[in-house]
Design goal:
single chain, 511 residues, alpha+beta, six-stranded antiparallel beta barrel, 26% helix, elongated
Length: 511
């Protein structure tokens, strides 16, 4: 009886306690729902403010965003004429195979037919109410007919196209009955990493789509396009977005969505846009001249990494180093030399060869500019009058690369570097397409040596060591001896295929 009374008392206490706890929990939950903490309230308010900003920008920009549809060109081809089989898709495809044309021509069974190359689709945006549209040059390349679809569904044919393939920018003109909504162009220099952006366009043909992200990086290079720097963003961009605007939270265009870095073929989180300042420069020239005039100085250059920075007595890697000066170019006339480290162009700091190219090409042709260089550890200022970039500049630069190797000679070993070298006789110089006495040629590189690790290869011509020209094997040995104290030596090498060449610096530690 006492045990039963004790059990009932314990159960009653448990029940009362549980009820109190349950009631308290409900009360707390109700209190939390009814009276949110101030920090949480502020967080929601900021989120709603950002949502309102996205909404406002979208409302203002979308009327100026267009979809672009292209029709391919009509081409003529000789095809097999087998009338009884033309209705069968498989046989028609088989007998239209171009590999059969010669055979069928001999049999008298060919006739000329017209085909239209495939068209495509992309995006664009209106920059002038009169009907001027910006997009990528690759969106409209090779098209006979280009149709622009406005946000309200109306379609207009493009009556004029001005394009610059190098910048991948195209300016289209459509005839419209009344002024159209347009979007202003901003300033990408004012954008910083982490700033919010919206990407507009027609991915996969889904018109007037909007995605959001941030500026992930600036000055991003693209392996397949060595001509310009891009803005990188994580705003989703997919096929069909090309040519659409990348917009900041002020509703200004800061770039043209152009490419993605992907392994899947779709959006992988890395989208690239042409910076709007480059777009504005190109567009102004297209509107005024119908083409783009670019300046050049006439050098080959190389990025300065941490090892090269030490060799050039730089505390941090900066600027670019001149590896070759094109003969009779503006740089040649201005007195540029191999080994000059370019720090500034017209007062603007230089970060990389890509950045240097972007700064130089927008200089005014025929004008003189100041360029700050570091030569032999001393800063100096050179004055250069830039010229228009020639159409064959790639050939003048000598950007080719090859792996011509002299044969039949072992050369003299330089154990400290792990290479063997040989003087440039006339025969070897002719074989490599260079002048005799312009350096020494590397005949072999020991596997696992310091030379192999930094990337030296047989067939490369060593032009200078420690910023001093070398023409003989004795010159090489003398320069290595001088560099023993520092434990490192700077080599300028040239790699040639007999037609073109490219020069490059290597900082090599001594064994």
């Amino acid at each position: 009886m006492n045990r039963l009374r004790a059990t009932l008392i314990a159960f009653s206490v448990f029940a009362v306690t549980t009820g109190v706890l349950t009631f308290a929990g409900v009360a707390c939950a109700q209190t939390a729902l009814q009276v949110p903490r101030t920090a949480e309230s502020d967080g929601f308010a900021k989120a709603y403010e950002l949502s309102d900003a996205f909404r406002t920008v979208s409302r203002n920009v979308l009327p100026a965003v267009v979809s672009i549809r292209t029709e391919g060109r009509v081409v003529k081809r000789q095809v097999a004429d087998f009338s009884p089989f033309q209705s069968d898709p498989f046989l028609r495809r088989f007998f239209n195979d171009p590999r059969l044309e010669d055979f069928m021509d001999q049999q008298g069974g060919l006739r000329e037919r017209e085909f239209r190359t495939p068209g495509g689709q992309g995006s664009g945006f209106i920059i002038d109410s009169s009907g001027l549209v910006l997009t990528n040059a690759h969106v409209v390349a090779g098209s006979d007919n280009i149709i622009v679809q406005l946000g309200d569904g109306r379609e207009f044919p493009v009556v004029d196209v001005k394009a610059d393939e190098r910048a991948d920018v195209a300016l289209l003109k459509i005839q419209v009955p009344e002024p159209l909504a347009s979007v202003p162009l901003g300033n990408d220099d004012a954008m910083e990493i982490g700033d919010w952006v919206l990407a507009f366009g027609s991915p996969f043909g889904m018109h007037h789509s909007v995605t959001q992200g941030i500026i992930s990086a600036k000055g991003r290079g693209l392996g397949g396009d060595p001509n310009k720097e891009f803005l990188q963003t994580d705003a989703a961009v997919n096929p069909g977005n090309s040519g659409g605007p990348l917009v900041n939270l002020r509703g200004e265009v800061v770039g043209i969505n152009t490419a993605i870095s992907t392994r899947s073929g779709g959006y992988d989180g890395v989208s690239l846009a042409i910076p709007v300042n480059l777009v504005k420069w190109v567009t102004d020239q297209l509107r005024t001249n119908g083409k783009v005039q670019r300046a050049y100085v006439g050098i080959q250059m190389q990025t300065i990494d941490a090892q090269l920075a030490r060799s050039f007595n730089l505390t941090v890697p900066q600027g670019v180093v001149v590896t070759e000066v094109v003969k009779d170019s503006p740089a040649d006339k201005a007195g540029f030399q191999q080994g000059d480290v370019i720090l500034e162009v017209d007062g603007r700091s230089v970060r990389s060869p890509l950045n240097m190219l972007g700064v130089v090409e927008r200089l005014s042709v025929g004008q003189t500019y100041r360029i700050k260089v570091l030569r032999d550890g001393t800063e100096r200022e050179l004055k250069i009058t830039v010229a228009e970039r020639p159409g064959n500049f790639a050939a003048l630069e000598g950007k080719g690369s090859g792996e011509s190797e002299p044969g039949g000679h072992d050369g003299t070993k330089v154990n400290e570097l792990g290479i063997a070298v040989q003087e440039l006789s006339q025969d070897i110089a002719d074989q490599l397409g260079v002048a005799a006495g312009s350096g020494v040629v590397i005949t072999s590189v020991s596997p696992g040596s310091v030379a192999a690790r930094v990337g030296l290869e047989p067939g490369m011509i060593v032009v200078s060591m420690g910023n001093r020209p070398v023409k003989t094997v004795q010159d090489v040995q003398d320069e290595v001896e001088k560099a023993r104290k520092s434990g490192q030596i700077l080599l300028l090498v040239k790699k040639s295929d007999g037609v073109s060449n490219v020069s490059r610096f290597f900082s090599v530690p001594l064994n």
